[in-house]
Amino acid sequence: MKKKLLISLFAIIIALTTAVGMAFAKGAIKIVVNGEEIKTDVAPQMSNNRVMVPISFISKSLGANVSWDQKNQTVSIKSSKSDLQEDVWNQNLDISSSSWSQVKNLIALYIAGFDTRDDELIKSISVEGFDMIPIGGMYPSIIDYEIIDAQQLKETLKVRVRVIIQEENLFGEEWDIEITQGKIKSMNIAKLFDVNEYTVFPGLTYNK
């Protein structure tokens, strides 16, 4: 009786295994993000009724950045343009839209002058004696930047800008740019941080 039962169970297991194998043989699991199928280096797999997919490919296709912290065994995922930004200075500003537009455009001009080593451009938008001008060569290059906060001081507006930079390696910095009377007064590096990989948008990713 036991022998017959074991044989029956074995037959069921073989049948189920064959059925699952045939199901997967009929077609591989597809990953579709925003209506577009994406290909991954590791095929999606079904495990315990859950589809397992490579997180890096999914995150990149959604415009997020993925980094791996070997020391702390941690995967970090962050949207390139996070909807929830840090309130660095916790201050409510009273700045008109036209005034903020001027500030934003001034920073954009500085970024352009930085990337093209255009010292005349930077001198034209900064106070006399401002010396944060990169010299010669192709590097460093700013891959992307984002204004993350601003602080109203007595006579100046301090703006914090997060930049992703490619030199010999990929890395990030946060700049505090002080603006007075429509010109840049100073630029100081407030923070340095590691960047292993950065996705500007799906299809354009830089690696460390």
Architecture overview:
A hairpin with a 4-residue loop joins strand 7 and strand 8. The chain has a four-stranded antiparallel β-sheet. Strands 1-2 form a two-stranded antiparallel ribbon. The protein has helices at residues 2-26, 55-61, 97-116, 119-124; strands spanning 31-33, 36-38, 45-47, 50-52, 64-69, 74-79, 141-152, 157-166, 170-180, 183-194, 197-201, 204-207. The radius of gyration is 26 Å and the shape is elongated. The longest helix has 25 residues, at 2-26. Helix content is 28%, strand content 38%. It is built from four helices and twelve strands; from the N terminus they run H-E-E-E-E-H-E-E-H-H-E-E-E-E-E-E. The protein is of the alpha+beta class and 208 residues long.
Short account of what is shown:
This protein is an alpha+beta fold. It is built from 4 helices and 12 strands. The longest helix is centred in the first third of the chain and has 25 residues.
Which key phrases capture this entry?
208 residues, four-stranded antiparallel β-sheet, 4 helices, alpha+beta, 28% helix, disordered N terminus
Write the layout of secondary structure elements.
Elements: H1 2-26, E1 31-33, E2 36-38, E3 45-47, E4 50-52, H2 55-61, E5 64-69, E6 74-79, H3 97-116, H4 119-124, E7 141-152, E8 157-166, E9 170-180, E10 183-194, E11 197-201, E12 204-207
Antiparallel strand pairs: 1-2, 3-4, 5-6, 7-8, 8-9, 9-10, 11-12
Helix content: 25-40%
Share of residues in strands: 35-45%
Shape: elongated
Q: Report the count of strand segments.
A: 12
Individual helix count: 4
Q: Please trace the helix and strand order, writing H or E for each element.
A: HEEEEHEEHHEEEEEE
| Distance, first to last CA | 64 Å
Biggest sheet features: 4 strands, antiparallel
Can you give the mean pLDDT? 80
Q: Ranges with pLDDT <50 over ≥5 residues?
A: 1-26
Broad structural category: alpha+beta
Give the strand line-up of the largest sheet.
7-8-9-10
Radius of gyration based on Cα positions: 26 Å
